[in-house]
Structures are given as structure tokens and as C-alpha cells.
Fold:
Amino acid sequence: VVGHPLDTVKTRLQAGQGYRNTLHCVLSIYRKETVSGFFKGMSFPLASITVYNSVVFGFFSNAQRLISKYRYGDGRHPCGLLDLTAASMLTGLVSVVLGAPVDLVKIRLQMQTQTLLAGMCGGAGGSDVPLRSVGVPVQGGYRGPIHCISSILQAEGVQGLYRGAGAMVLRDVPGYTLYFIPYTIFCDLLRPDATSTPNPCAIWLAGGLAGSISWVTATPADVVKSRMQADARLHRKYKGIVHCIVHSYRTEGAQVFFRGASVNAIRGFPMSATMFLTYELSLQFFRSF
Structure:
């Protein structure tokens, strides 16, 4: 709920909608769509975030245990930097399986600048037929996440839900590596001594810094992912990841790949700080029984 408005701004900036800067994007959304415009597409991520995060953090923890058991013969043996890297990269791959459809639906809904279909297409005999009547999905035509999913499945099949998944792999594999490793390093630096556990303030700070680092460094791949997922079938501009990168660079320059970096940095801190703090406190709570 806290991060979604900034995520909407980030998506609009990255997808190339003619906004001059972050402030212009924020004001444009507010003027044209009011406050509700910042919360478009939130219901589906909100409904799936618990499952997604439990899988991501659960897989990361279990991957560490398996690696430690394989390398050291003890699943409780502390992981080294190389072990953490391997566990983080595997977590990034797994996250795409669940996260790609959620992100796709979220972005398609976020990109809607109007609530009703407003186009006409030529019918038989030159008559104008509303697009809704012929079942053609256009930008602005999704009534909600369920309608969005069914429209994508009907038009493109299951593979349609995974459009941009390749770019998401490029974002999440290094992204989660630069998420969990900085968190671990900062926690080690902020703990009083090697045998003690970090206090909640240290966990919150370490998680926030790790989130900002991860999201800022992942911005170029995030731009490509956002553009491909916002690229609706009837208005398709990009043939694939390479074409998206080349086309974006030729038309808008190298700076296009850093659109939304400041928003990602701001948004990444409170989201990740809260997530890591809740995760660690939950583990402590359940381990006390």
C-alpha cells in the first residue's frame, strides 16, 4: 500500500509516456486521474504479495540450508559470500515464475489512462463499431485484474502472461543478489559483536539500504521489463528484449535506462526495511516456541 503509488509513477516514467520528469508525472496523474490513479492495479499484487514473499524468503532460507548441508555437511553452518550469491541467484529465478504474471497484470492496469474503452473501429459497410462490441482489448479496456488475465489468456495464451519474463530474469537474478548480500553485510557491520543478533533498528536500516541498492542497480533491466510488459498485443512495438533495448536507446538515448531510478531508491527503502524487519521478527517469534 505504501509503495504502490511510487510504483505507478515509476512504471509510467519507464514505459515512455512523454513525462518530462518525476514531478511532471506525479502532477499529471493527479490532475487527470486524482489520487485513485496512483493505486491502479494494486488489488492483484496486494492479494498475492503474501504468497510471493513467503516463497521468495522461504526459498532463500532453504537454499542456504541445502548449500550448507552439501558443502559443509551441516545445514546450520553459516553461509559464505559465494554460498549467499548462489542462493540469491536461484531465488531470483524462482521469483520470476510467480512474479512475472503478477507484474504483467499490475503494469497493464497501471498503464490505463482511462476507465472506459474509447475507440471506434470501422465495421462492415464502413459503419463505426465500438471496440467493446467486437471483443478487441485495447489500452484502457481492462475492468480489473480478473478481466485483464482472462483477456490476455484469450488473446495470447498462457505465454502471454509471461511477456517480459526474460527481462525480469535479467532484473531479478542480479537484483536479489544485490538485495540479500548487502543486507547480510550491513547486518554484520551493525551488530555489536559477532555472537549477538542485530537489533530491530539495525535490521530496519540494513534492509532499507539493501532495498535501495538493489532497486537502483536493477533500474536498467526494470525499464526494459516495464516497456515489454506494457506493450499490449494490438499495439506491439518491441519484438523482444534486444529489440526493446536497441529501439529505446536509438530513440531516447542511454538515459532512458535510468528512468525511475530515484523513485526506485526512495520506494525501495521503506518497503525493504519493513519486509526484512517483519521477516526477522517473525522468525524470532516462531523460534521461541
